[in-house]
């Protein structure tokens, strides 16, 4: 008789495997516990973390709480108060529904739950609370305690009993950044709820109850950030779109500043991201991202949220009206916000590329009668130094232009006009025709016409200078600002700056904390020239936002920072 090869896994092992689908990192724990707190009708949520959440996470709320019986049942797999039949999934109004969060977290950590049920009749009379302690999925203790209100969950030593999973955790700054973004995401989705987040007893995020989304955006990101957003509010027969999106000049180097929601649930969905990208395809370079806070609302029966245990992936029954609705909402908002093609690439103040054109004469374009341009297209000036007289349809006019083309030269004649004498060795040099929308240099070379992005070219110059300093072993020289500037950070950038400040100060910056989520910039790297110090730091902090920090590899971090500069 042969031995059976197919065996039922031990319960503890099965639970650890199942937990891997839900609990991937500290941010996953925060997500699941926040959803429980929000589903419990909380109006205030306090989050504490140590070491990026790897050693301790505490979440306390003032929600409805649980009775002793419900608290015990909540640690059983597939135990939930959110649904009772499959049809409930078609009209789901809660964030959680699987009944897997608490048992999964308890199986890979040391976990303590304290709770008390809110009185059904609104009575303020004290009621006994419940405390339950689990360690590695095993119940250690259970008892009655005095507890004022709501629920508190403490998770310590995440993955202490799963070394293979623990070694895949990232560095503390990286985990903290992910936890912070998770909290920001729920704070944006629920402006009527107060959020407080501290890390190592230092405040990272504070958001009091807000009257609307705009006030919550102001709390988290500041007035300057809000001033560069336009409001979304549009609907069709199927979907309603609301939120905020950025004007084209407000760009980020990663998609970390896009917060997307469907029926109040934070999601990651290709339909939404493609609609956003396509809405900006003629307005910003493909390598950057707009800032978007997008809420999509539609009939719950039109989406499937039961795609993945983490509940961040969804499927639309019909994605076409969702895609169309998002595009229409964003494009309409950008028109009303006076978006223009001149925002294709932001100009670089103080750039060495600006003064090369001499006397500039605008080419004014007027629309033919009866054919006005749409409001959304506001063409900037196109300046030419060329004998070429374009042939334009009737109704268009041009101003006279100069009779000669400049060529590249590092020493223009201070007593001459726009013309630069052509010499034999410059005969094949590229010829500058002019500048388009104050962002692109129009150049001819042999039989080709080239568009040079001034912003990208300027970044390349700075990169080459920084790389040269690094290769020579030189320390980045500091250029002090005549007037220090302050920069308000969002909570996630604050978490990044906390761990990057020393590296910044070793590499040409002089920056320090100025107040709550505000830093003061007193100096920038000399290679940055006359740059916008605020924007430069914003880009650096945003770029590290989604990257791995390895404080023990200083040389690697130094090189990455200098490459960004």
General description of the model:
It is a single chain. Helices cover 28% and strands 24% of the residues. The chain has 14 helices and 24 strands. It has an eight-stranded mixed sheet with strand order 5-4-3-6-2-1-7-8. A five-stranded mixed sheet has the order 9-10-15-12-13, sandwiched between helices. The longest helix is centred in the first third of the chain and has 18 residues. About 17% of the residues have low confidence.
Count of structural domains: 4
What percent of the residues sit in helical stretches (DSSP H or I)? 25-40%
**Cα-atom radius of gyration:** 29 Å
Return residue spans where pLDDT drops below 50 for at least 5 consecutive residues.
339-427, 550-558
Give a short account of the largest sheet.
Answer: 8 strands, mixed
Tell me the name of the CATH class of the largest domain. Answer: Alpha Beta
Any idea of the CATH topology of the largest domain? Heat Shock Protein 90
Relevant CATH superfamily of the largest domain = Histidine kinase-like ATPase, C-terminal domain
Share of residues in strands = 15-25%
Could you give the count of β-strands? Answer: 24
What order do the strands of the largest sheet run in, or round the barrel if closed?
5-4-3-6-2-1-7-8
Query: Looking at the structure, what is the overall shape?
Result: globular
- DSSP helix count? 14
Distance between the termini: 71 Å
| Second rung of CATH, namely the architecture of the largest domain | 2-Layer Sandwich
């Amino acid at each position: 008789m042969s031995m059976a090869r197919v065996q039922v896994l031990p319960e503890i092992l099965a639970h650890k495997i199942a937990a891997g689908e839900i609990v991937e990192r500290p941010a996953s724990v925060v997500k699941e516990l926040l959803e429980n707190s929000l589903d419990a009708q909380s109006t205030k949520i306090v989050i504490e973390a140590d070491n990026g959440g790897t050693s301790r996470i505490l979440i306390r709320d003032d929600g409805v709480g649980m009775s002793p019986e419900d608290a015990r049942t909540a640690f059983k797999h597939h135990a939930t108060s959110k649904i009772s039949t499959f049809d409930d999934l078609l009209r789901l109004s809660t964030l959680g529904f699987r009944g897997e969060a608490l048992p999964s977290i308890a199986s890979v950590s040391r976990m303590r739950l304290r709770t008390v049920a809110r009185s059904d009749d609104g009575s303020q009379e004290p009621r006994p609370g419940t405390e339950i302690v689990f360690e590695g999925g095993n119940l250690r203790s259970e008892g009655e305690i005095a507890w004022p209100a709501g629920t508190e969950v403490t998770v310590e030593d995440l993955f202490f009993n799963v070394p293979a999973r623990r070694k895949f955790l990232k560095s503390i700054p990286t985990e903290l950044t992910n936890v912070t973004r998770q909290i920001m995401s729920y704070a944006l989705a629920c402006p009527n709820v107060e959020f407080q987040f501290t890390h190592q007893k230092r405040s990272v995020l504070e958001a009091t109850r807000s009257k609307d989304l705009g006030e919550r955006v102001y709390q988290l990101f500041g007035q300057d950030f809000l001033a560069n957003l336009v409001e979304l509010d549009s609907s069709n027969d199927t979907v309603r779109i609301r939120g905020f999106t950025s004007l084209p000049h407000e760009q980020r180097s990663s998609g970390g500043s896009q917060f997307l929601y469907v029926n109040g649930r934070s999601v990651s969905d290709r339909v939404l991201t493609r609609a956003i990208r396509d809405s900006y395809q003629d307005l910003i370079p493909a390598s950057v991202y707009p800032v978007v806070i997008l809420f999509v609302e539609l009939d719950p029966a039109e989406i499937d949220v039961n795609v993945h245990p983490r509940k961040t992936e969804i499927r639309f029954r019909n994605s076409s009206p969702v895609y169309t609705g998002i595009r229409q909402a964003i494009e309409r908002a950008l028109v009303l916000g006076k978006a223009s093609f001149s925002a294709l690439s932001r100009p670089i103040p103080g750039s060495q590329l600006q003064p090369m054109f001499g006397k500039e004469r605008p080419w004014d374009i007027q629309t033919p009668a009866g054919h006005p341009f749409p409001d959304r297209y506001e063409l900037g000036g196109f300046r030419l130094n060329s004998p070429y007289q374009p042939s334009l349809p009737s109704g268009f006019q041009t101003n006279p232009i100069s009779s000669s083309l400049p060529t590249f030269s590092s020493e223009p004649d201070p007593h001459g006009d726009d013309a630069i004498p052509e010499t034999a060795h410059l005969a094949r040099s590229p010829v500058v025709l002019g500048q388009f929308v104050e962002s692109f240099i129009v150049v001819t070379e042999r039989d080709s016409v080239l568009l040079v992005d001034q912003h990208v070219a300027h970044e390349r110059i700075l990169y080459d200078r920084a790389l040269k300093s690094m290769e020579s072993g030189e320390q980045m020289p500091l250029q002090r600002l005549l007037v220090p500037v302050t920069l308000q950070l969002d909570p996630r950038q604050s978490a990044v700056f906390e761990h990057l400040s020393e590296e910044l100060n070793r590499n040409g910056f002089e920056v320090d904390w100025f107040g709550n989520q505000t830093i003061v910039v007193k100096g920038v790297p000399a290679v940055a020239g006359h740059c916008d110090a605020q924007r430069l730091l914003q880009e650096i902090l945003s770029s590290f936002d989604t990257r791995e920090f390895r404080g023990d590899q200083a040389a690697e971090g130094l090189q990455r920072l200098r490459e960004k500069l």
